[in-house]
Design brief:
about 260 residues, 13 helices, 8 strands, about 45% helix, globular, binds 2-phosphoglycolic acid
Length: about 260
């Protein structure tokens, strides 16, 4: 089964409005000459306050080559939840199709639990958007030999009460925490092994079709120099990119590195 690859740029807490627009313009220019059908899905995730200007900037080209994600959301539709943003509010942005949830930085610094991530995933899918569900182990967990157990638990909890059909549409990002922002990429063969294990977990929970359809990305120090080897692996369907997505040329190189798989 062919799964359309995704290259997603997680800008984290970087870029004010002017910088966000500049980066978007730069990326548009880098991808201008390439036929949309040859590209992977290209997704950028600015901070909430820049979603409006980036959406406008993307509308200007009208070419539909670049989509947006938000870096988080809240699962309640509205109400007294100071500082939170609902999914309905995110639907204001015509280019926004994805919502990243459960990033390890949110789990670690903002105490997000598997239960909250599950509620977010359910609400995102109910609103017609697609969750990018992050999972990954710490260095201690890897050294203890509990990587697979930890990740399959995260995935099982994240997809509780989600149908096979909705699971099939979803995206998972496997991001070993020790590889995020450290320059230490997880070996591609090992990343592929863990991703296959995630697919097996989905198969046992939701069946073969969901397992074959769900796209599973790798994240953690992805660079232009690593992407081709990563994409050459059987089960890696793309990348969630942090640091290297903050420069138009390096992110475009990563996008181009995924083109071979995008046109299969
Ligand atoms: P990195 O971040 O590419 O800077 O390691 C990846 C991520 O946290 O999504």
């Amino acid at each position: 089964m062919s799964r359309k690859p995704i290259i997603a740029g997680n800008w984290k807490m970087h870029n004010n409005n002017a910088q966000s627009v500049e980066l978007t313009e730069g990326l548009k220019a880098e991808l201008k000459e390439i036929d949309k059908n040859l590209l992977p899905e290209v997704v950028i995730a600015p901070v909430f306050t820049s979603l409006y200007v980036v959406n406008e900037e993307l509308n200007k080209c009208g070419c539909g080559k670049i989509k947006m994600a938000s870096q988080n959301c809240y699962y309640e539709p509205k109400g007294a939840f100071t500082g939170e943003v609902s999914i309905d509010m995110l639907k204001d942005f015509s280019n926004l199709e994805y919502v990243i949830i459960g990033h390890s930085e949110r789990r670690q610094y903002f105490n997000e639990t598997d239960e909250m991530i599950n509620k977010k995933a359910i609400a995102i899918l109910a609103n017609g958007l697609i969750p990018i569900v992050c999972c990954g182990e710490t260095l201690e967990q890897r050294e203890e030999g509990i990587t697979d157990k930890h990740i399959s638990t995260q995935i099982t909890k994240a997809f509780e009460n989600i149908s096979a059909e909705d699971t099939a549409k979803s995206v998972i990002a496997y991001e070993p925490i020790w590889a995020i922002g450290t320059g230490k990429t997880c070996d591609s063969v090992e990343a592929n092994r863990v991703i296959k294990m995630i697919r097996e977990t989905i198969k046992s929970l939701k069946g073969e079709n969901a397992a074959n359809s769900i796209r599973i990305l790798y994240g953690g120090s992805v660079k232009p120099e690593t992407i081709e080897e990563q994409m050459a692996q059987s089960d890696i369907d793309g990348a969630l990119v942090g640091g290297a997505s903050l420069k138009a040329d390096s992110f475009a190189k990563i996008v181009k590195g995924a083109m071979a798989k995008a046109s299969v």
